[in-house]
Amino acid sequence: MVVQEEASGRYSLGPYALQLGLASLRKLDIGRLGRAALQDLSDEAGEASYLAVWGNRGPCIIMRVDGPRPIPMSLQVGYVLPVIPTATGRIFLSYLPRAVTAVVVEQERAGTDPRSANIPEAELAKVIAETQARGVSRTDGLLNIGFTALSAPVLAHDGTLAGAITVIGPSGGIDTAFNGRTARLLRSASESLTEQMGGKAPG
Fold first, then answer.
1. Contact 88, 130 (CB under 8 A)
2. Whole-prediction pTM value?
3. Rounded distance between C-alpha atoms, residue 200 and residue 116, angstroms
4. Please, are residues 161 and 153 in contact by the beta-carbon 8 Å criterion?
5. DSSP states of 134-158 as a string?
6. Alpha carbons 172 and 148: distance in angstroms, whole number
7. Domain-wise residue ranges, the chain
8. Three-state SS at 162
9. What mean pLDDT do residues 88-116 have?
10. Around Cβ 62, how many Cβ atoms within 10 Å?
11. What are phi and psi of 182, to 5 degrees?
12. Could you tell me which CATH number the domain at 29-196 has?
């Protein structure tokens, strides 16, 4: 728990105590803190929202709040989203190290799904740059025909990506502008959750 510094004789936190501290910071659990942020977002935007974290096969939905309008049944808790053709996936693609996402990205690029197959590296780089510049990603009808999604990052205390908040609604029935009302509400929700996680919203 503690170690004694040889030169000064003073005590400081040892490796086990540091592990406990980091575990506690991780327990500023995005799953525990995210429910209120999602509920507020759905109430204000009038659309469904969900929270996703990175799993061993890609972005996984861990929480969902329904809005007054139905969303695709596939978007259930536990559903693993593709990275390239989804707003949520593009947040992870843009804010996680490529070493983390590389296997999933290459599987999608080598697959048969026309939304992801054979996507040039230059196009992926453009998606990443635009997402990082805006702080929000958007897709319209790529994963679910007739639905538009906007997603934003949630950062942890150390600046790493903890998860992504996404709002989804019917195409033509949701404000898709990057500076529109839905995007502003989404940014506000992601920034609030980031602050609760001890992080700082991307500038």
1. no
2. 0.82
3. 32
4. yes
5. HS-EEEESSSSTTEEEEEEEEE-TT
6. 8
7. 29-196
8. strand
9. 91
10. 17
11. -60, -45
12. 3.30.450.40
Q: Which residue is it, tokens 């007054």?
A: 68
Residue-wise pLDDT for 183-197, tens only, equals 999 999 999 999 988
The residue type of 86 is T
How many residues are listed for the chain in this entry? Answer: 203
Q: What is d(CA 59, CA 104) in angstroms, rounded to the nearest whole number?
A: 10
For residue 164 the two structure tokens come to: 């992504």
Quick check: helix, strand or coil at residue 3? Answer: strand
- Nearest CA to 169 out of 190, 196, 141 is that of 141
- The amino acid present at 121, given as its one-letter code, is E
> Per DSSP, what are the bridge partners of residue 51?
63, 165
With H, G, I as helix, E, B as strand and everything else as coil, classify residue 51.
strand
Q: What are phi and psi of 171, to 5 degrees?
A: -60, 135
> What count of Cα atoms within 13 Å lies in the side-chain half-sphere of residue 69?
13
Rounded to whole angstroms, how far apart are CA atoms 197 and 111?
A: 36
